[in-house]
Amino acid sequence: MKCRKCDQKAVINMRQHKLALCAVHFPQWMVEQTQRFIEKYRMFTPKERVLVAVSGGKDSLSLWDILWQLGYTADGVYIALGIDGGFGYSRKSQELCEKFAAQRGLKLIVVDAAQQLGATIPELAAITQRGKNKPCSVCGLTKRHILDQVAREGQYDVLATGHNLDDEVAVLFGNTLNWNVGYLSRQSPVLPARHAGLVRKVKPLCRFYEREMAAYALVRGIEYIYEECPHAEGSTTIYYKTLLNQLETDRPGAKLSFYLAFLQAKEKGFLAQPQTEDDEEGIGAAGEHLHTCPSCGGPTTLEGLCAFCRMVEKVK
Ligand code: AMP
Ligand code: FES
Ligand code: ZN
Ligand code: ZN
User: Is the pLDDT of residue 77 over 70?
Assistant: First the structure.
């Protein structure tokens, strides 16, 4: 198959767009599209300072690479979670982020979660949940807290994460199966800052398929960690992703249209009712009043210590 824009061999065929592109035109297209999404969803302007949350994976490093090429002022932040999984998952991820930043002369902030918490994530899960559950919820809470804190202290205007279309669609699918209206009301490419202790959150890659992100990283020669977090195995998200991949195989473009139709429905006012509940991806629902945690200054749905500070208290 040939590239739509030149005669060279295509490296990717994007069936949902009926578009095949070569190793030169594909990364160019990805960069242009990202800029389009940034403008369309009013994510940030060239004057604003962006903090990119990098995990060492293909999505977040590619996002940083794209923003760098677009000329944005974008620093990176990596949270060392102390997860080993028998292959040094966290250590390897950190090294890849550091190498990426050094190669491009970019600033990377590294935060050691264990130093802040007094325990690694797996240790923390063992203490707070008596080892009963996977450490993923403790990990998610810690990551969100530290990312908000770094963004606030560094006076960044916006925090960007590498969530891709497959991630967003899996979340959307799960929330729709459960008719979780509160979560659905807040799932968006842009989450405005609703509290002094929060910054705006954006997902510039939310319309790219995972395979497009993998192809981009490959073509650009970005070294990233191939392994998933060892605790992700057997997760509901992975199960939903498998189901959705099956759907996509039979109906190319199904994931993208599911997501875009959802965003459109939301724009038209479907899901306008804010609901009160705690959330995986942030705190409280769209219209809910937030209190300030007396310990860290972060937001909380109830008065008193926030969920993160309560967890840290338990460790002490
Ligand atoms: P995940 O929750 O692992 O699917 O990651 C979603 C996004 O969160 C990634 O694309 C990154 O932007 C960010 N992220 C995940 N892990 C880390 C980490 N250890 N440090 C900083 N950002 C992270
Ligand atoms: Fe946090 Fe896997 S990345 S538990
Ligand atoms: Zn071409
Ligand atoms: Zn707190």
Answer: yes
